[in-house]
Amino acid sequence: MVSHDGGASGGQDDSLFGTGIQQLIGMNVKEVVTRAGSFVIIDLVGPELPTRPLLDTAVLWIYMSAWRIDVEGYPVVGHEDARSDIREAVSLLGDRVLTGLEVDPGAIDATFRFGSISLKVFPMRFSVPEDGSGEVIHWAAWTPSGDVLAAGPGAWRSVMAASRSQLTAQLTYMRDYRP
Q1: Weakest mean pLDDT among 47-51, 103-107, 172-176
Q2: Which of 21, 26, 43, 145 could join 31 via S-S bond, C-beta 3.0 to 4.6 A?
Q3: How far does Cα 2 stand from its chain's mean position?
Q4: Domains of the chain: which residue ranges?
């Protein structure tokens, strides 16, 4: 398990992925929206510090995965619960600070910590599609420095420039999607 909490890393991770994750720690939740299925889009903004890199916004997108929100260690809602329950639970993240992130590289699990509230992400599959259709991404994060971090089978710890990422086009579509 690799832990990022805004301080020393619990396991030295000097990769670009780890550096990108560190950029997200300490950012505030500006808005949380749910979309088709159980997609969750979390807009993050940086604190008012002059030392923030390049941009002051970031996005965390949970999709193609199972997830659960815990409050003070107790499960509150899961990705397959009623839409009204999901909307109510994700609203708890509003105005919170991303205080930590734990990732398990072997299992591709991730826990995003917002103080006493945790968003736990569990993969729905572990293998790359046999048909050659490419990577499966369970969550992605757009960092203030302009990179996209992608996590999932075939993409674990993938880092790409947001301007050249097909994921950016998909996120834009999903953000604007209204069923």
Answers
A1: 47-51
A2: 43
A3: 15
A4: 2-176
Q: Provide the 10 A C-beta neighbour count for residue 170.
A: 14
Which has the closest alpha carbon to 142: 87, 62, 70, 48? 62
Element (H, E) at 43: strand 39-45
Q: Distance between CA atoms of 130 and 11, rounded to whole angstroms? A: 33
Q: Which residue has the higher pLDDT, 126 or 121?
A: 121
CA atoms within 13 Å, Cβ hemisphere of 160: 13
User: Quick one: CA torsion of 178, 148, 133, 135, rounded to 10 degrees?
Assistant: -120
CA dihedral 110, 55, 114, 12 (to 10 degrees): 50
Predicted pLDDT of residue 50: 45
Under 8 Å between Cβ of 103 and 11: no
**CA 102, CA 110: separation in Å to the nearest integer?**
6
The whole-number average pLDDT for the span 90-115 is: 89
Q: Tell me phi and psi for residue 23, to 5 degrees.
A: -65, -25
pLDDT at site 175: 63
